[in-house]
């Protein structure tokens, strides 16, 4: 309604004035129908108040605001009642839960005490049966010990005779075993000596081959004398491939040392023994590099 008045303010004012005029005319007619005479004294002034649309709108807003304030107060009152009721219900439920829990705890305590009493009685009965069982076991054990002692004496005698025969047979076997071991040892020593001789020859031959291959790949630095020598540690794979090379004992000339390292890497793979046992000595080897010797 207020929105319509705002949008059609002029029409509303005209309609209002029109209705006031109609009401005034009806009032005058009603007065004229009265039997008494209407006398207007001089000096009486008829005042006509014009309707201000802004004032009317303000009044409407004021009335609406008052209604809204009343509605808000009523809603607040209802909300307070609702909260009070909810709080009361909550307290009631909490009290019911407390009583229920208290009752449950009492029931559990009674149940626990009964269970403890039952457990204690069962434990006492168990102890009694265990005591009876131990007494019977002790008696049985004593009888078993006597029987075992008799069997042990008999067994010891049999074992003594058996051990005597065994010792005699063992002494004979030991004598034969010693004789056999002495023969095996002599054969192993001869085989080891032969293997060492062969291994030494193979090792020396491959060391010479490695040194020659490295020397073939070596280029003497211009600033290095011809009489230098150094020692290098070389790590190899069974294929002869060089994994790493490092100077273990320097020649005193950095250029010479670097040239030897370079020569070792260029010479890879190096000639190594095919025998895996002998190769163990080449897996990590220290080689003295002395060109021309």
SSE order and pairing:
Layout: H1 2-7, H2 9-32, H3 53-216, E1 230-236, E2 242-249, H4 254-267, H5 276-283, E3 284-289
Antiparallel strand pairs: 1-2, 1-3
Helix pairs in contact: 3-4
Structure write-up:
This protein is mainly alpha-helical and 293 residues long. The chain has a domain at 191-289: 2-Layer Sandwich (Fusion Protein Consisting Of Minor Coat Protein, Glycine Rich Linker, Tola, And A His Tag, Chain: A, Domain 2). It is built from five helices and three strands; from the N terminus they run H-H-H-E-E-H-H-E. Helix 3 crosses helix 4. The longest helix is centred in the middle third of the chain and has 164 residues, at 53-216. The protein is flat. The two termini are 124 Å apart.
Give short descriptive properties of this protein.
293 residues, mainly alpha, Fusion Protein Consisting Of Minor Coat Protein, Glycine Rich Linker, Tola, And A His Tag, Chain: A, Domain 2, 3-stranded antiparallel sheet, 5 helices, 74% helix
State the gist of this model.
The protein is mainly α and 293 residues long. The protein has helices spanning 2-7, 9-32, 53-216, 254-267, 276-283; strands at residues 230-236, 242-249, 284-289.
Helix content: over 70%
Sketch the major β-sheet.
3 strands, antiparallel
What is the molecular shape?
flat
- Count of alpha and pi helical runs: 5
> Segments where pLDDT lies below 50 for 5+ residues?
36-42
Q: Order of helices and strands, N to C?
A: HHHEEHHE
Summing up helix and strand content along with how strands pair, one would put the structural category as mainly alpha
Content of β-strand = 5-15%
Strand tally: 3
Q: What's the architecture of the domain at 191-289 in CATH terms?
A: 2-Layer Sandwich
CATH topology of the domain at 191-289: Fusion Protein Consisting Of Minor Coat Protein, Glycine Rich Linker, Tola, And A His Tag, Chain: A, Domain 2
Overall mean pLDDT: 85
The neighbouring-strand order within the major sheet is 2-1-3
| Cα distance spanning the termini | 124 Å
What is the CA-atom radius of gyration, in angstroms?
Answer: 63 Å
CATH class of the domain at 191-289: Alpha Beta
